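To fix ideas, we now present one chain and its tokenised fold:
***
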Amino acid sequence: MTSTTRCAACKYLRRRCSSDCIFSPYFPSHNPQRFASVHKQLPVNLRAEAADSLYYEAQCRIQDPVYGCVGIISILQQQVNHVQNEIAKAQAEILVLNANTTTAQGQPHSDEYHQLASS
């Protein structure tokens, strides 16, 4: 890009736009809102994390060209659902055991019952 047709990123950042500007293919001069939105939503302190995320997603796509990281997310979600079901079952068993214990404590033992009944 020449200095008269700077890309939207270089215009926004008020700098010269070289012919090999890395931003120009992604932020053309006719769409300044595109860069402004990205710049606003991706502040400087989060850019390293964004780059790491892009790298991770690319690696996942290499390993699984069809689903990429979405496949991993799906597997993890299934595992979470399974564990939640197991927790619900365990909680239900605890309620049943507590109810049985409460019921057993409220009733006299059979020997005590017979002694009380014959009195």
Observations:
- The radius of gyration is 33 Å.
- The chain has a mean pLDDT of 87.
